[in-house]
Amino acid sequence: MNYPLTGYHHITACAGPAQDDVNFFTQVVGLRMAKQTVLMDGKIPVYHLYYSNANLEPGSVMTTFPYPKKPGRRGSGQVHATAFSVSKGSLPFWKEHFKRHGIEQEPQAERFGQSFIRFHHPAGLSCEVIEVADDKRVAWTTPEISKDAAVHGFHGAVLSVREVAETERFFNDALGFRKSGVDGAYHRFETGTGGANKTITLLHEPDRPAGSWTFGSGTVHHIALWGADDAALAQQKEIYEELGYTDASEIKDRFYFHSMYCRCPGGILVESCCNVPGGFEKDEAANELGTKMHLPPWWEHHKEEIMSQLEPITVPETATAH
Ligand SMILES: [Fe+2]
After folding, report:
1. pTM for this one?
2. How many whole angstroms from 151 Cα to the centroid of ligand 1?
């Protein structure tokens, strides 16, 4: 069977103060600012900030809801860490880079023979840079982070689960990921050609209390996998329903893409999303991406009211087209 979703599109986390988040993802991780907009659910205005590699590729898009008013609780049933793919031999640079920025980091470690450093966002989110040979995706560079070290995109998410079996069944049967190894408490699943952007890792933590599912700073809200078009999304919804995952959501218009959500048995929310014509360039030119705030057209007439409730942010010039 050919499955319609072929890798990641984005990973979405709740940060703390917006400016801290902008500084972290553009200057520490070194992504470009791809879009400034707002969360489309609920009534309280919350930023939705998008960061990506040089080409805004699916599988490189980190997004955040700065949510400083309410902390989330980290735990199982949640994304444990977001791993970014970097070139082989670059970890010594990253170690020094994190040190220069006063970023909390853990000693270099390995899983499945790949070296990584885990480091922490100011709101407590865990991120990793993991060495991948030959990731051809074009990284965004900054004055501090050159081509040979910069982030190509996601390697994948590490999901904390109290039990492996039913989440394994979900990724196997509903999404077409095959199990490709166990390394201690880590269980690895890959789709298609495997490797960067095509890997989900479960971290088996049987005794870890459940983390929160609500919006709350310091927690990842969901992962999003990518299909080419609306037909892919419809096919994925059919697969979920055929298997009995009846709680797949309706397909939602997220303006820059279409989305559908289903929570996996381990508790992590898994979005399926697909391109729409124009994508991120629907409301701003390629050379202006990320420079200004944009609201979906149906909220434009509330712009002043929305903006008055959001803290102003400054995006470093090095994070937009130059
Ligand atoms: Fe999403």
Report:
1. 0.97
2. 20
